[in-house]
Every structure is written in structure tokens, then in C-alpha cells.
Amino acid sequence: METEFTPWLSLGGGMLIGGAAVLLMATNGRIAGISGLTSRLFSRSTEGEARGVSALFVLGLLLAAPLWMLVSGGWPQQWVPSSPVLMAVAGLLVGFGATYGNGCTSGHGVCGISRGSARSIVATVTFMAAAFVTVFIMRHLIGA
Amino acid sequence: MKQIFALLSGLIFGLGLIISGMADPAKVLNFLDVFGTWDPSLAFVMGGAIAVTAPGFALLFRTRQRPYFDHSFRVPTRNDLDPKLLTGAAIFGIGWGLGGFCPGPALTALPMAATGTLIFVPFMLTGMWVARHTPDLTPTPKKGAA
Known about the structure:
The complex is a heterodimer of chains A (144) and B (146).
Chain A: H1 7-28, H2 34-40, H3 48-72, H4 84-100, H5 105-115, H6 118-142
Helix pairs in contact in A: 2-3, 5-6
Chain B: H1 2-20, H2 25-31, H3 41-63, H4 83-99, H5 103-109, H6 115-132
Helix pairs in contact in B: 5-6
């Protein structure tokens, strides 16, 4: 399925993401890494205050689409793969891998690269490569 | 005050994901499909985000000793490359390529309640829980998450 190339909207949206990461660091001193903030919610070792900040950030994420709906009158455009088995496996791998590897697209890809962290640069190259290969296999070798 | 800004940061982050197209798995999968219906938009998302975050962080760390509403910047200090980092990143990348969702977009898309999202998110949280409780088998000492 084709999607429209949207360089300006994507650049603008990306800058908002960057602005949010800087805002969280400036006010709370924390990396806007979604897997880190989310997985911290159910770790017993997390101090109460850190848990509260994480919970509120995640709540903000959850409120974005409903706010968009209220202002624009419709949900944002999206198409989500509907195969239950595929999405269950994908979810497990994403959740496990991001937490085990200490970060995902936001923590390593945006915040880590912005700090010049060698670990984050290597992690980002690794998960991008794995994702490109996976899509190639799924779409061009298996033909799913 | 810090709580208000945590909520606001999450909200802006989510709106950025929606506007950029990153919250739409179709766009993510097409970005990853260079030899098919390639849509290079997401390179602009990452570029735009880093173009703001890199100078923003640099300015913050140079001009301030601590954040406005907390006592210290919590920034990872490790710079060693351990098997755990690479294994986790590779597993995450495979899942990302299968479903087109990474954690932020999946949570942002959750209220839209697509069937695939409603299945993905609980399994993602389960995966996170399992990883949190999987002991680090590599010899490197354990420190804070990114």
C-alpha cells in the first residue's frame, strides 16, 4: 500500500518531538525515551516520584490523539496490520527488545544520537538494519 | 510544576508523532521498504527531531547545572558496547519491521483502538515486563536504563 511522501509535515512533526524531548530534559532532567519511561511504570525499584513523572508523560501521549480528534473533528489517518498473531509477536519483540537494549527509537534514536552517545548510535544502526531486513523478508521474500 | 511539564511533554511528543506520520504503521513500513513502496518521510522525522534536540540538549547542559524543577540531569553515562545492547536493539528492530509500531507511536495510536493496536500494546507491555525481570547475563555491571 502506497503512502504519500510528506517531507514538510514529517519535518515539522519531528521538530515537535525534539521540542518535547528538550522540554522534558529542561524541566525534569529526564531522557524522553518511551520504552524507558513506560517500563519504569511496572518496576518495583522505581522511586515514587520517577514513576509519577513517567505516568504523566505516558498519559500525555495517550491524550494526543483524542485532542487531535477534538480540534480537527476526525482521527489521524492510519492503517494498522490486523493479523493478531503478527501483532502479538511484533509487540512482544518490540517491548522485550527495547527494554533489554535500554532504549527504542526515541531514547536511542533521538535523545541518544543528539547527545552523541556511541551506545545509542550503534543501537540505532542495529535496530534500523534489523527492521529494513525484516520488511524486505516479509514483503519481498515471503510476500506477506 | 514538574508534573505539569511531564504531561505537556508527553502531549507535544504525541502530537509530533501524529503530525509527522510516525503514528501510522503504513508510513513506517513503507519507510522500511526501500525496494517496494518506499516513502522516505520518516527520515525527515528523525532529522527534524535531532535538529532540535541536539542543540537544545547542548545549550541546556552548557548553561544550567540542573533542570528547572528537579535537582539533577539524569543522563546515561555508559559508553561500552555490550551484547545486551546489540541483542536488544536487533530484537526490537525485527518487531518494529513486523508491526510498524515502536513504543511511542503504539501508545499514541492506542485510543484510536484499531484491532492491531489493541493486540500489540498489551504484548509490548508484557515484553517490557519480561525484559525488566530478565537477568543480565553479560559480565558488564548494570546501570540505569536510557
